[in-house]
Write a structure and sequence with these properties.
By secondary structure, the protein is mainly β. Helices cover 0% and strands 48% of the residues.
Length: 174
């Protein structure tokens, strides 16, 4: 995060490769946030938070391409599936959904019209493409269906069972 690079480690903790420095050029980052790897081609997708873009690297950590130029304000998290790339833009806040060719197919608004996310930080998707999203400022978790409709919300501020205090990350177990 603070050193503006992406590192690849062995399971034992030995640094294998590293790429990046502070900047806005290819393979330069300004606070990299979310990261995911494509099962299809092993490319690495990195949310370049303060550069308002997603950078795509090869599995060798070489620059490949960029995604979302001019679309994002602060991309925070990303998930790559066989046929979609989903990017959470936390400052807007909204979810951008691209097809496997990186063409925008949907922009799901997560605030307003009954959707009251305030500061979404992280998300995961289930096998039915439901989106489960943590909200840092609202101290809760939202569940949206693949059409972007809120279908459930749980949690409140606190430290007891079913309560959260600024939830940051979220991961589902299949």
């Amino acid at each position: 995060y603070g050193d503006h690079c992406v590192n690849m480690y062995e399971l034992e903790g030995k640094l294998m490769k590293s790429v990046g420095s502070n900047g806005n050029g290819e393979a330069q980052f300004n606070y990299p946030h979310g990261i995911d790897v494509s099962d299809r081609n092993h490319n690495i997708y990195v949310c370049d938070y303060s550069n308002n873009r997603v950078q795509i690297l090869t599995e060798e950590l070489k620059y490949h391409s960029m995604l979302g130029i001019g679309l994002f304000t602060s991309p925070r998290d990303i998930k790559v599936t066989r046929d979609r790339v989903l990017v959470l833009d936390g400052s807007d806040p909204c979810m951008f959904i691209f097809n496997s060719e990186h063409l925008l197919i949907n922009r799901m608004i997560t605030r307003g019209s009954g959707k009251q996310t305030n500061n979404p930080y992280s998300f995961d998707i289930d096998r039915d493409y439901n989106i489960i999203m943590s909200d840092y400022s609202n101290h809760c978790v939202y569940v949206f269906n693949k059409e972007g409709e809120q279908i459930h919300k749980f949690g409140k501020q606190g430290q007891g069972i079913g309560e959260f205090y600024h939830p940051y990350g979220i991961v589902l177990d299949n």
